[in-house]
TrEMBL record:
Domain of life: Bacteria
InterPro entries: Glyas_Bleomycin-R_OHBP_Dase, Glyas_Fos-R_dOase_dom, PhnB-like
Organism listed in the record: Streptomyces liliifuscus
Protein name: VOC family protein
A Pfam short name: Glyoxalase
């Protein structure tokens, strides 16, 4: 297997809902493992996600988990998940779903560098950037 780089996002008890939402947005196959399945069946966190992975038909991989017991949850630092490419319809579809119920910092529109770009924070507090490359005629 080749090496890959992908985001791994921490949540505060709502990783399952977030990953199911991202599956609705991006499609793909979602695998979820709970703390209960990993030897913590009697803990209050038994149904929370110890590890989740979404692999999409477009080749995206997104991993996430709920913060483990005993660790402090720290909401995202200075990061964004970036989606980019030249498939206008696909990327606009992702944008519409990700920004719904969230906040838009930069509307998805043509920018001075020629691409269509937008920034939003989804309803789970995760920042996203979408860049649609202008196809050359």
């Amino acid at each position: 297997m080749a090496s890959r780089l992908n985001p791994y996002i921490s949540f505060d008890g709502d990783a399952r809902q977030a990953l199911e939402f991202y599956k609705e947005v991006l499609g793909g196959t979602l695998a979820l493992n709970t703390f209960g399945e990993s030897g913590m069946a009697d803990s209050p966190e038994a149904n929370q996600i110890m590890h989740g992975m979404l692999e999409t038909p477009s080749g995206f991989t997104l991993m996430a988990a709920d913060t483990p017991p005993g660790m402090k949850y720290t909401p995202g630092g200075n990061f964004s998940v970036s989606l980019s490419g030249d498939d206008d319809a696909e990327l606009r579809g992702y944008w519409e779903k990700l920004s719904a119920g969230g906040t838009v910092a930069v509307p998805l529109e043509k920018q001075m560098w020629g691409d269509v770009f937008g920034m939003c924070t989804d309803r789970f507090g995760i920042p996203w950037m979408v860049n649609i490359t202008e196809t050359q005629a």
